[in-house]
Amino acid sequence: MNIDAPLLPDTGEPGFGIYVHWPFCAAKCPYCDFNSHVRHQPVDQPRFAAAFQSEMGWMRQMSGPKTVTSIFLGGGTPSLMEPATVAAVLESISRHWHVPEGIEITMEANPSSVEAERFRGYRAAGVNRVSLGVQALNDADLKFLGRLHDVADALKAIRLAREIFPRMSFDLIYARPRQTVDAWEAELKEAISYAVDHLSLYQLTIEEGTPFYGLHKAGKLLVPDGDQSADLYEATQETTARYGLPAYEVSNHARPGAESRHNLTYWRYGDYAGIGPGAHGRLTRGSQKIATATERRPEAWLDLVGRQGHGMIDQEELGRDEQADELLLMGLRLTEGVDLARWQQLSGRDPDPRREQILLEHGFIERLGNSRLRCTPKGMLILDAVVADLAC
Ligand SMILES: C[S@@+](CC[C@H](N)C(=O)[O-])C[C@H]1O[C@@H](n2cnc3c(N)ncnc32)[C@H](O)[C@@H]1O
Ligand code: SF4
């Protein structure tokens, strides 16, 4: 593989992605409900690499021969993987599918688990884009979020990532308790000054089952209300657009051309193979789209792979209506909107003209010529309601 091959351009097609889940973290953040686990004994990485490879064989049988358009190593904390593990995973993917030079290969990394040597190892293995979980640019909020890094570590990781990888993004979480629009705008402008061409900006969500959920329910953690969140969201859209990083999706911002190819595949409702504990996938077999899900618990997943060659516990054939709903749910997150012909083909009908008219009149959606439908910035604020209205 030529790791220096220039990035292939975005064709506008949904594409075919490979997602590999590394389910371990050094500590569990109190807001996070991702499938991530803390282990106090060293993880047997070669065993995991072999199990990933085995599961890929199964997914390859389901998907048939395909050309991969992006690879994403997510977590958990994939930067806890040894570079040799990452190299083995990428090699396995190339053995199962066609992997052209110049596709996007992203890895998530935590600023606290970053060492220059490891970063160089990931780069040598073929990773060409890194996504750093910075989360905040002040130490008090990083502590509140339960992060293991401070601002100095984050800046060091950003510097290193910029030096080593051709492409780099980082995540911030906003709408934190007592965060004002002014404070957030100042932090965001600072973030933009460190950014290359992509930022992911998530509003803090209180997820059921997390420590934050318990605190929130007990009235000990107050987050911005609906109006305050909307103000913060609007400030985010304005500031990023003003500095050349407009939103291309609800929470994702990029200079035109620097969008994450892998995430575009999800939102354009393309296929992806989800490999590893708790990974979800969407694979097309003939005219059928199949939703896949694997066992979430890492050791149970390993056992299952040992016994049956894969850790899949759920395979559901999606009906045309379900696919049409999913296409809408994902596509309306994008500023490019949804391809109506594809939606009509799946659902077998046009959008209900009366409902569409009401949404148009209220300024929640707009047509882009005859072929696409998208949410307006106002509609993005009530995205779920818009989708629900158009879907039924
Ligand atoms: C699965 S995490 C993986 C990244 C990496 N482990 C890290 O935390 O640095 C992906 C991103 O989701 C975001 N995230 C996770 N839980 C969230 C929540 N409850 N509210 C908002 N954003 C959240 C964080 O910004 C995080 O960087
Ligand atoms: S936010 Fe990232 S580091 Fe924190 S528990 Fe979730 S996956 Fe792990």
Which CATH class of the largest domain?
Alpha Beta
Given as residue ranges, the uncertain stretches (5+ residues, pLDDT < 50) are: none
**What Rg, in angstroms, do the CA atoms define?**
21 Å
Helical segment tally? 15
User: What name does CATH use for the topology of the largest domain?
Assistant: TIM Barrel
The geometry reads as globular
| Domains, number | 2
Ligands bound to this protein structure:
S-adenosylmethionine, iron/sulfur cluster
SSE succession: EHEHEHEHHEHEHHEEHEEEHEHEHHEEHH
Total number of strands = 15
Family: Belongs to the anaerobic coproporphyrinogen-III oxidase family. HemW subfamily.
Function: Probably acts as a heme chaperone, transferring heme to an unknown acceptor. Binds one molecule of heme per monomer, possibly covalently. Binds 1 [4Fe-4S] cluster. The cluster is coordinated with 3 cysteines and an exchangeable S-adenosyl-L-methionine.
Subcellular location: Cytoplasm
Domain Radical SAM core: 10-246
Write a structural description.
This protein has helices at 45-63, 83-96, 116-125, 139-144, 151-164, 181-194, 211-217, 226-242, 261-267, 298-308, 320-331, 340-347, 353-361, 377-380, 383-391; strands spanning 16-22, 70-75, 104-109, 129-135, 167-174, 198-203, 247-249, 252-254, 271-275, 280-285, 288-294, 312-318, 338-339, 365-368, 372-375. The strands form three sheets. Strands 7-8-6-5-4-3-2-1-9 form a nine-stranded mixed sheet, sandwiched between helices. A three-stranded antiparallel sheet has the order 10-11-12. It is of the alpha/beta class and 392 residues long. It has two domains: 16-266, TIM Barrel, CATH 3.20.20; 320-392, Arc Repressor Mutant, subunit A. It contains 15 helices and 15 strands. Bound molecules: S-adenosylmethionine and iron/sulfur cluster (SF4). Iron/sulfur cluster is lined by residues 25, 28-29, 32, 34, 36, 75-77, 110, 133. Keywords: 4Fe-4S, Chaperone, Cytoplasm, Heme, Iron, Iron-sulfur, Metal-binding, S-adenosyl-L-methionine.
